[in-house]
Amino acid sequence: MKKAFSKVYLSIVYLFLYLPILILIVFSFNESKSKSHFTGFSLRWYEVLFEDELIMSSLMNTLLLAAISSVIATVIGTMAAIGIYSLGKKSRAVVMSVTNLPMVNPEVVTGISLMLLFVFVSSVIGISQGFYSVLIAHITFNLPYVILNVLPKLYQVNANLFEAALDLGCTKKQAFFKVILPEIMPGVFSGFLMAVTLSLDDFIISYFTSGSDFQTLPVTIYSMLRKQVPPSLNALSTLLFVAVLVILLISNISAIRKEKAERKK
Amino acid sequence: MKNKALAIPHIVWSIVFIVVPLCFVLYFAFTADDGSFTLSWFLEAGRFAGVFARSLKLALIATVICLVVGYPMAYIISRTSWITQKTLIMLIMLPMWMNFLLRTYAWMTLLEKNGIINNILEALGIFNLLGITEPLKMINTEGAIIIGMVYNFLPFMIIPLYNIMVKIDNSLIEASRDLGCNGFNVFRRVLLPLSVPGIINGITMVFVPAASTFVISQKLGGAKNMLIGDLIDIYFMGGEPNFHIGSVLSLILMLIILICMAFMKQSDEEVML
Predict the structure, then answer these.
(1) ipTM of the predicted structure?
(2) Gap between the Cα atoms of B260 and B214, Å rounded
C-alpha cells in the first residue's frame, strides 16, 4: 500500500516535470504553425532553425564564451583556492564572503551592477559592451564555484606530501605540478564543468551585460519570446533537450560503472 | 604548498568586478542627476511597495509548494536502491539543465487562451458540461506565475533535500519505530531535525530566484502582475531607463534577500545546537 502510494506520487511529479517538455517536442514536428493543434508530421521547423543565422551565430557565441570563460575562471579560481587555503583565519573569512557575493546575491543585482560598471567604462574610454563585457561577467560568476570545488580537495591533501616531494629533490614548481595538482584535479575538473554549464545556461547576467551587438543563445531565445514565437523554437528546445539527455546519460552510466567496480572490490 | 600571493589575481578581480559595481549601485541610489546627494529616489520607489509585497508573496507561496511537494519526493528517492536513486535524480536534473526560458515557454503554450489545456478541456466537452462559454483565463494571472516558479525551481528544492536525506541511516528510522514512534513522530522527531540543513538550502535556492525573477512574471503574469524583477528590468533596459530608481530597487531587493538569508542561517545554527 505504502509502496504503491510512493510510486503514484513519483509518477505524478515526474509527469508534471516532463509533460510540458514532451508537448514542446511533439509540436516541433508539427506541419503547421499552430502550437495547440497537431496537423501532421514534418521536419520543416528544423530546416527553418538551421537556416536562422541569428540563432546559429548566437549558439557559436555561447559555446565560445563558455569555453573561454570557464578556462580563465578555472585557472584564476584554482590559484585563488591555494591562496585562500594559505591565508590566516580572519583574512580568509573576508575573502570568502566577497567571493560568495555573486552566489548569494540575486542574479539581477549582479547583472545590473556590472552593467553600471560597463556603461561607465564605455562613457570614459569608448569601448562599448559586447563580447568582452559578457566574458568578464561570466568569469566573475564562475569564480566562486571553481573555488568552492577546489578548496575542500586542498584540505584533504596530506601536507607532508609536498614536503616529501621537496626532500626528494623536486623544486617547488615541480612539487606542485607533479604532486599537489594531481591530488586536487577532481575538484578542479568538477569546478570547470560547473563553470561550463553555468556559462552555457546563463541568461540574466548576459542579458544585462551584453549590449546590443553581441547575443548569446539564451539572450536570442528571450528576444524570440517577445514576438510571435516561431515553432523553430520548439525544434531548438528539442535538440537542446536531447543534447542534455545524452550528456547526462553518458556521465551517469560511467558513474554507475565506476561505483559498481568499486563495490566489487 | 602554501602561497598567499596566488590569491592576488582573484582578490583584484573581485574588487574590480564585484565590489566596485556594487559601489556604483550605491552611488546611483543616493545621488541626483547632477551628482548631489539625495534620498528622493527612495521616496519615489516607495510607490512600488505593492510590487514588493506581491513579489515576496508569490515567491513565498511557490517556495512552500516546492517544499511540500519536494520533501516527500526527496525522501522516497533516498530510500530506493542506489541505481534507481541515480536514475531518478538524473531525471530530476534533466529539466533543470534545460534553459529556464524554454521551460517558461513550455508553460506559455500550455496556458494560453487558445492553448493546449483549454483545447483539451473543450475537446473533452468539459466546457459544455459545466456551461462555460469562454476559454479559461489562465495566462496573465498570479496563479500562472506561481505555476511557472514551481515548475522552474522544484528541482532546486529536491536536489539539496535528497543530498541530505541519503545520508540519513535507515537504522535510525527503524530504531525510532522499534522504540514506539508512529509514522508522524518518526517524521517529526527523527527525519525533520536531521534534514534541516537540506530544507534551508532548498528554501534559499528556490526563494531567491523566485523573488527576483522577471522572465517568469513577464511571460506568464503579463503587465498587470509585475514583480520587482520586472521593474528593475524596465528601469535598466526599458525605453526610458532611470538607473537611479533601478539602483534603489536593486538595493532594497538585495537587502531583503540578505536579511532573509541571515535569518535562515541563524535558525539553522540554532537547530544544530
Answers:
(1) 0.91
(2) 20
